[in-house]
Amino acid sequence: MRRLAYLVGTALAATGVLAAAVGASAALAAGPGHAVFVQNDRLEGNQIVAYSRSAEGTLTQAGVYATGGDGGALEGSVVDHTASEGSLAYDSSQKLLFAVNAGSSTVSVFSVFGDRLALRQEISSGGKFPVSIAADGNSVYVLNAEEGGSIQGYTIASSNLVPVPSSFRSLGLPVVAAGKDEQFTHTPGQIAFSPEGSQLIVTTKAAGQSVEVFANPLTALSATPVVNSLPGTVPFGVTFDNQGHLLVAQAGNNSLASYALGESGTLSQLDSVATEQAATCWVEAGAGKYYYASNAGSASITGFLSSLHGKLLTKLEDTPTHPGTVDAAAAGKYLYVQGGKEGTVDEYEVQPGGSLESLGSVIVPSGEGGEGIVAG
Predict the structure, then answer these.
(1) With the C-alpha atoms ordered 73, 74, 80, 85, is the resulting torsion angle positive or negative?
(2) Contact 133/126 with Cβ under 8 angstroms?
(3) Can you name the residues that pair with 314 across neighbouring β-strands?
(4) 111-138 pLDDT, tens digit each
(5) pLDDT for 14-35, tens place per residue?
(6) Which of 72, 221, 249, 268 is the most buried (most CB within 10 A)?
(7) Cβ within 8 Å of residue 217, ≥6 positions away
(8) Number of H helices, E strands in the chain
């Protein structure tokens, strides 16, 4: 066995990957998870910044990894260049991290080893300016923002993405000319799977003022979506509560709304509660029944407590963040919130009543305007 280990180590060194393998082994020895990954959307070369997460919830930078592609910035963007939620997706079962490269119209795939990454692949997003990505089982879908919006599906084979040509769908949204500030508001915002994977959700923000639902994404994607029109709401970011209700951050009226998602793809509103903050665009599931909406214009997080029937019974207190509050990620009782103006991640511990206790913050290298964060 020692002889075999020596020969394998020598071969790896000869191919120039021994250092990466040693780093991965060290990370695995420390145990899986306990990491946070942040995308900086760097225009001259997109990067994923990796952080190790202590038992007390604080972050320490562990590495910076090039995606192989470029970040991008929609016209009119200030604190979130991609005007989206979910530009990173993590498949914990296969330990794969998926990232969009908006400026290159590509998707990158990384293998995850604790708080270490290894780039496996960079592949076309099937459209222009990808902004959001979602994974479920062996299926991955990416949302492209420009040219009227589109989605492209992939299957995972040997830890790589293989495009499924029959899964491409154009959203047919109005095309915003280059150089117009409406690019930021009039492009789609997020793609997400329903909890059981049988439906695919796309928010269209101000371009369509709708939540569009495709059926059968894991097998044979429906030719057209069910379009749920929500005029005046500007649906942006979504998540699901622990009962399967769809929660939507609505930037048009600065609210968090809950919907029942029917098998037919139709939405039935259950509740809508104003955050009383500005630019409520993102929402993240926290610990238990607590959910947190990010308010970019107010530099704050608003907490909510949901009930058994999808009602947002209680609006909790607002918690200040660094400027330009964007996407967030939860890990157990900890919540990590991106600040797009200065390129920060704020660290919080969720208290028993849902309030957030600050644990500090970290600076993301070249993270101004970046979006995309996942935690394990």
Answers:
(1) negative
(2) no
(3) 305
(4) 999 999 999 999 999 999 999 999 999 9
(5) 333 333 333 333 333 333 469 9
(6) 249
(7) 136, 139, 141, 153, 167, 193, 197, 198, 199, 200
(8) 4, 29
DSSP H/E element including 207: helix 205-208
Rounded-to-integer distance, Cα 130 and Cα 83, Å: 11
pTM: 0.91
For the chain, domain boundaries = 34-375
How many angstroms separate the CA atoms of 36 and 99, rounded? Answer: 14
pLDDT tens readout for residues 311-338: 777 899 999 999 999 999 999 999 999 9
Q: Yes or no: say if 283 and 294 are a contact pair by the CB < 8 Å rule.
A: yes
* Structural contact between residues 205 and 83, judged by C-beta atoms closer than 8 angstroms: yes
Q: How many residues does the chain have?
A: 376
Residue 200 token pair: 């695919």
Contacts from 328-332 at CB under 8 Å and sequence distance 24+? 328/282, 328/284, 328/292, 328/294, 328/301, 328/373, 329/36, 329/284, 329/373, 329/374, 329/375, 330/284, 330/285, 330/286, 330/287, 330/375, 331/33, 331/34, 331/36, 331/53, 331/375, 331/376, 332/287
Q: How far apart are CA 370 and CA 376, in angstroms?
A: 20
Q: Which helix (H) or strand (E) holds 273?
A: strand 267-274
Q: Spell out the residues 6+ positions from residue 253 whose beta carbon is closer than 8 angstroms to its own.
A: 232, 233, 234, 272, 274
Give the Cα separation of 340 and 165 in Å (integer). Answer: 35
Distance, in Å, from the CA atom of 153 to the CA atom of 217, rounded to the nearest integer, reads 8
The pair of three-digit structure tokens given for residue 68, joined into one six-digit string: 């192989």
Class of domain 34-375: mainly beta
The DSSP string of 112-151 is EETTEEEEEEEEE-SSSSEEEEEEETTEEEEEE-STT-EE
| Tokens found for residue 336 | 């990590």
Return all residues near 1 (Cβ < 8 A) that are at least 6 apart.
none
Backbone angle region of 102, left / alpha / beta, with phi > 0 → left and psi within -120 to 50 → alpha = alpha
Question: With 0-12 CB in 10 A as exposed, 13-18 as middle and 19+ as buried, what is 122?
Answer: middle
8 Å CB contact between 190 and 84: yes
- Reported as half-sphere exposure (CB side, CA atoms, 13 A), residue 371 has a value of 33
